[in-house]
Design brief:
Alpha/beta knot; about 30% helix; about 15% strand; elongated; 7-stranded mixed beta sheet; 2 domains
C-alpha cells in the first residue's frame, strides 16, 4: 500500500526547496525543534501525515511501502523500509518534525545516498509530479501482476459513498471478483486538490490501474490530512478496507493470473500455415499442463534421502555407533503420525522414513527415580535437548503420583520422573526394556522379560577421557543442583556428533563434582538390538 499526499495548495504554488519564494526554504527553529512560522501549514502537515504511518518495531506499518509528497514544484518519495534503515544508522529512533524536514533538506543539498528518499525540486531537467506518479503506478501494477492480483487507486473526495463500518462488514461475505495486491491512496492537504490537478492524476493513473480510479468519502466529511489517513488505517487494521475496495471496484478490465509458475510452451505445429488454426484458446494456454505437474511430483517423492557419509569425530558415542548394528527403519509412534498433514489421494507414494523419523530410541521408555524434586527437574531439563528428535516427544512428570503410575505401561514412548519409593511398584507393571535411571545412586537398570535387571556403566563425555564409571563412584546428587548445570552440559556436548543420537539411547545422570559443589552431567550411550544390549 502506498500514499500520495498532494501539498501543492493553489495552482502554480508548491513547495520550493531552493528558497525562491518569499517565505524562504523550510528552516528548523533550534529552540522549538519545529518549522518556522512562515512554513506552518505547508510541508509541516505533510510530515505529520508521514509520521502517521510510523509503527513501533519495524519503523512503519508493515503494509505501508511508499509515501509520496507531491506538489507542483518540489516532490519527495519515501521508500519507507530503506528510509527506516537510514534513520536507524543515523541513530534517529523517533520521527520528529526536525528529523523528517531536516532529512529532506540534507538529502536535497548534500545528495545523501541510500537515504530512502527521491527528491526533485521541479527545476529544468528534473522530473515533475506526474513523472513521480507514473513511475510508481507502473511499478505497482507490475508487482500486482507478479503476485497474481490487481492494482487500484483510491482518492478521497466528496460526493461518493462513505466508508462506514456496517457497509464494510457486509462486503466480507459478498462476492468480490477483484484481488487487490497493491493500493495507492490519494489525499490532499488542508487546501485540498484542485480540479485541474485531480484530472491530471486520474488521467495518469488510468494508464496503469486495472480499474477506474475509485473515489470514497469518510464519515464526518474528513477528506484530507493526517486525520483522514488515520481513519483509513483504522479500517485497514480491522481487515475491512481491502474487502470493501474489492467489492466497490467491481470486475477488472482483464483477468490476471499468477506468474509464480510459468505456463509450459505449446507444442510446435507441423507447418507455419497451420499455426493459427491449431492455436489453443486462452484458457487452454494459461492452464498448467498436468503431465508436467505429475513429473514434478514424481521427482519429489521418489528421490531417496541419502545420509551424509563422512568421518565422525572421535568420541565414546561415535565409537559405539561404529560397532553397533544398524537397525532397520521403522515408522514413528502413532501420536506423532497424527500430527503430520495427510497427503491427498493419488499424490504418489510417501517418502521413505529416514532415521530421524524411525530408530530404536522412541521405542524404549525410561524412568528417572529420585528423592529430590530439584534433581528430577534438572534431569528433565537436560533431557529436553537429548530425547528424540532432540526434543522430548514424551511426557515428563517430576513426581509421579499414585494415580499416574499406570503411565509406565503405556505403549507410547515416555520419560517419567518418579519418586524412589515407587520404583518397586513401577518395575512390576513396566513393559520389558524399560530403562530405570537412578539419579541418586548413579545406576541404570534395564527391565528384562524375566524380571532381571542388567547393570550398565557410564561414559564420560569430556574430551580425551574415556573411562568407565561404576555406580558407586558417584555420590548422591545434592537436592539443589548448581545453576551452571546447563552450561556444563553444553560444554560436554560440543564434541559429540548429533547423528549418533538417532539410533543411540542417551541418558543423563547427575553427579557431584570432585569439590562437591558443581553438578556434572554424564551421558550414557547404548545401542539396542532385538536380543541383547550392546
Amino acid at each position: 500500500m502506498g500514499v500520495l499526499y498532494w501539498g501543492g495548495g493553489l495552482e502554480g504554488q508548491g513547495w520550493d526547496l531552493s528558497g525562491r519564494l518569499p517565505g524562504g526554504f523550510p528552516r528548523i527553529d533550534r529552540y522549538s525543534d519545529a518549522l518556522l512560522d512562515s512554513w506552518k501549514g505547508r510541508m509541516e502537515n505533510a510530515q505529520v501525515t508521514l509520521r502517521m504511518c510510523a509503527s513501533e518495531g519495524p519503523g512503519f506499518k508493515r503494509y505501508m511501502k511508499h509515501f509520496m509528497m507531491l506538489s507542483s514544484q518540489a516532490c519527495v518519495e519515501f521508500r519507507l523500509r530503506q528510509y527506516h534503515r537510514y534513520n536507524t544508522l543515523c541513530r534517529r529512533k523517533v520521527l520528529t518534525e526536525r528529523q523528517v524536514i531536516g532529512g529532506i533538506l540534507e538529502t536535497w543539498h548534500k545528495g545523501t545516498p541510500n537515504s530512502g528518499m527521491r527528491i526533485s525540486n521541479g527545476g529544468p531537467g528534473e522530473p515533475g509530479f506526474l513523472a513521480f506518479l507514473n513511475r510508481r503506478a507502473r511499478r505497482y501494477r507490475a508487482q500486482a501482476r507478479r503476485l497474481g492480483g490487481h492494482f487500484a487507486a483510491v482518492i478521497l473526495e466528496g460526493g461518493h459513498p462513505e466508508l462506514k463500518f456496517v457497509a464494510a462488514a457486509k462486503t466480507l461475505s459478498a462476492e468480490r471478483p477483484a484481488n487487490l495486491k497493491r493500493v495507492l491512496l490519494i489525499l490532499g492537504g488542508p487546501d485540498g486538490i484542485s480540479d485541474t490537478i485531480r484530472q491530471q492524476l486520474r488521467t495518469t493513473l488510468e494508464e496503469h490501474t486495472d480499474f477506474p480510479v475509485l473515489g470514497i468519502a469518510l464519515p464526518g466529511g474528513i477528506l484530507h490530512s493526517y486525520y483522514a489517513l488515520a481513519t483509513v488505517f483504522v479500517f485497514h487494521d480491522q481487515g475491512l478496507l481491502i474487502p470493501y475496495l474489492e467489492f466497490q471496484v467491481g470486475k477488472p478490465r482483464e483477468v490476471v493470473k499468477s506468474k509464480a509458475r510459468p505456463p509450459a510452451r505449446p507444442e510446435t505445429p507441423e507447418s507455419p500455415a497451420e499455426a493459427p488454426a491449431e492455436a489453443p484458446s486462452q484458457e487452454t494456454t494459461e492452464a498448467p499442463p498436468k503431465p508436467r505437474d505429475e513429473a514434478q511430483n514424481k521427482d519429489k517423492t521418489e528421490r531417496p534421502e541419502v545420509a551424509p557419509k563422512g568421518p565422525l569425530p572421535p568420541g565414546p558415542v561415535n565409537a559405539l555407533w561404529a560397532f553397533a548394528p544398524k537397525p532397520p527403519p521403522c515408522p514413528p509412534p502413532a501420536h506423532l503420525l497424527a500430527q503430520r498433514p495427510q497427503q491427498p489421494a493419488g499424490a504418489g507414494a510417501q517418502r521413505p522414513e529416514s532415521t530421524v523419523n524411525g530408530g530404536l530410541l522412541p521405542k524404549v521408555p525410561g524412568l528417572g527415580p529420585s528423592e529430590g524434586m530439584s534433581a528430577l527437574c534438572a534431569f528433565g531439563e537436560i533431557l529436553v535437548g537429548l530425547i528424540w528428535p532432540l526434543r522430548p516427544a514424551a511426557v515428563y512428570v517430576p513426581l509421579l503420583p499414585d494415580a499416574l503410575v499406570d503411565f509406565c505401561g503405556a505403549p507410547l514412548p515416555f520419560v517419567l520422573g518418579i519418586s524412589s519409593e515407587m520404583v518397586q511398584r513401577a518395575e512390576a507393571i513396566c513393559e520389558p526394556q524399560t530403562m530405570f535411571v537412578d539419579i541418586d545412586s548413579g545406576e541404570i537398570r534395564v527391565v528384562q522379560e524375566n524380571s532381571m535387571s542388567a547393570m550398565l556403566g557410564f561414559c564420560s563425555t569430556r574430551p580425551g577421557e574415556h573411562r568407565l564409571v561404576g555406580p558407586k563412584s558417584r555420590p548422591a546428587a545434592p537436592d539443589r543442583p548448581h545453576k551452571k548445570l546447563l552450561r556444563r552440559l553444553d560444554l560436554a556436548l560440543r564434541g559429540i556428533d548429533f547423528e549418533a543420537f538417532l539410533v543411540a539411547l542417551l541418558f543423563v545422570v547427575i553427579g557431584e563434582d570432585e569439590d562437591g559443589v558443581l553438578v556434572e552431567p554424564v551421558i550414557l550411550a547404548a545401542s539396542f538390538t532385538q536380543a541383547n544390549v550392546v
